[in-house]
């Protein structure tokens, strides 16, 4: 809109300046659920959906037994199976229109015939259509489980087509579901495909298998009636509003409040569930770019800060250790001091107090580590030998495997490079020109391991 209005010559300069200012993004105040809150929500959803799944599974078995002729006509088992068969095909159990009310205000209502009502155990929805179909609240619980398991938004869950196993996974006991997810607001890479495998009770794909089982009758009915291909299909008490007859699809504005009332939970946010999964549990983007994931979801989240503290501390310690290994620790002096002992590479002020071993037994570390020791002393007469060692290590870099050079020589080389920077190019050049045959001999022996204890 701003780019369109800028072309209007009537636009005042102050207004143009105001329109040019960047509007800061709205701060996201939503927080991930705590572990206790998340577990409570997921447990409540599991209980709701598990009860619904077992109910549908039991009545499906009863229907199958009736279709296979396992019940004698006229028995309660036969009437129950007959009612379930009609329920699966028509979306309702046997019913009749009857008058209800007084003579001044009569209306016609559907009633379950007495024999079927007795066989079903009553005429309440839990005795009739809920035998094969999920309720609005139960579909909400299933949606919560999908968000908690896969870190998806409410809209992709609501609009998700019924997943089907890949052809090559059918028949071997393992089912692989390929799900295509679409994010409407993203112009590029707006869709992604995820695979979920059902190889057992705790596998990622088991929830999909159970969701397909729980919604099988509803999906079969709506498919036969020309309805959309959706995973979340549920039965409603009144055929009004969007949907297909007695059935509706996905999550509506009534789904979550209905389930919350049944469970006694205070509130449930699908956005917070998704944030908990992607930021606290999976710690990776879910239908977002890495930049959006880090900037919008991770950085404002206190739980992410708490998790990051030990990681940052470990990283800082590792960086500090690396710096100590590769930065010169030896002291630079103008001349040898009383009490200093000469080593292969430099002087040493306290041979018995080495940081690389136990105090009092003498240093046994490699002479290559002298430049990493605070007891080391480097005077000008040490410069030529150390400059030549630097040259030899640089030459080794081109003739041995990079991995070996990195492991054995890189830290010593880095410390000598630090020494080179500290004393300056002029002094370093003079040191290189002052290398003696004895310096070369000692350095070659050092590099070849002749001084190793």
TrEMBL record:
<protein>
    <recommendedName>
        <fullName>Integrase</fullName>
    </recommendedName>
</protein>
């Amino acid at each position: 809109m701003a780019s369109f209005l800028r072309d209007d010559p009537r636009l005042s300069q102050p207004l143009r300046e105001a329109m040019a200012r960047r509007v800061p993004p709205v701060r996201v105040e939503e927080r991930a659920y705590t572990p206790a809150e998340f577990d409570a929500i997921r447990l409540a959803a599991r209980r709701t959906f598990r009860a619904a799944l077992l109910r549908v599974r039991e009545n499906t078995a009863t229907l199958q037994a009736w279709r296979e002729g396992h019940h004698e006509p006229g028995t309660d088992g036969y009437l129950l199976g007959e009612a379930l068969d009609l329920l699966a095909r028509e979306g309702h159990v046997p019913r009749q229109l009857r008058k209800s009310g007084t003579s001044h205000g009569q209306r016609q209502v559907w009633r379950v015939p007495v024999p079927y009502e007795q066989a079903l155990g009553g005429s309440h929805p839990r005795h009739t259509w809920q035998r094969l179909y999920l309720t609005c609240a139960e579909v909400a619980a299933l949606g919560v489980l999908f968000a908690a398991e896969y870190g998806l938004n409410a809209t992709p869950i609501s609009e998700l087509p019924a997943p089907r196993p890949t052809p090559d996974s059918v028949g071997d006991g393992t089912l692989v579901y390929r799900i295509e997810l679409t994010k409407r607001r993203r112009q590029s890479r707006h869709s992604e495909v995820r695979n979920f495998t059902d190889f057992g009770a705790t596998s990622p794909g088991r929830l999909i298998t159970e969701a397909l089982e729980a919604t099988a009758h509803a999906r079969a009915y709506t498919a036969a009636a020309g309805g959309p291909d959706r995973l979340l299909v549920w039965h409603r008490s009144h055929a009004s509003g969007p949907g297909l007859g007695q059935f509706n699809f996905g999550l509506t504005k009534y789904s979550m409040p209905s389930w919350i009332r049944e469970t006694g939970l205070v509130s449930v946010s699908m956005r917070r569930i998704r944030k908990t999964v992607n930021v606290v549990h999976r710690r990776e983007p879910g239908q977002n770019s890495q930049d959006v994931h880090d900037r919008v979801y991770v950085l404002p989240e206190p739980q992410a800060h708490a998790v990051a503290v030990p990681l940052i501390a470990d990283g800082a310690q590792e960086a500090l250790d690396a710096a100590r290994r590769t930065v010169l620790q030896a002291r630079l002096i103008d001349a040898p001091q009383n009490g200093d002992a000469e080593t292969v590479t430099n002087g040493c002020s306290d041979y018995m107090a080495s940081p690389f071993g136990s105090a009092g037994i003498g240093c046994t570390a490699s002479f290559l580590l002298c430049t990493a020791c605070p007891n080391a002393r480097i005077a000008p007469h040490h410069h030529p030998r150390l400059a030549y060692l630097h040259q030899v290590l640089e030459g080794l870099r081109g003739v041995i495997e990079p991995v070996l050079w990195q492991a054995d020589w890189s830290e010593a080389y880095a410390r000598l490079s630090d020494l080179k920077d500290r004393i300056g190019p002029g002094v370093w050049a003079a040191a290189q020109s002052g290398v003696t045959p004895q310096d070369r001999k000692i350095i070659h022996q050092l590099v070849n391991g002749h001084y190793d204890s």
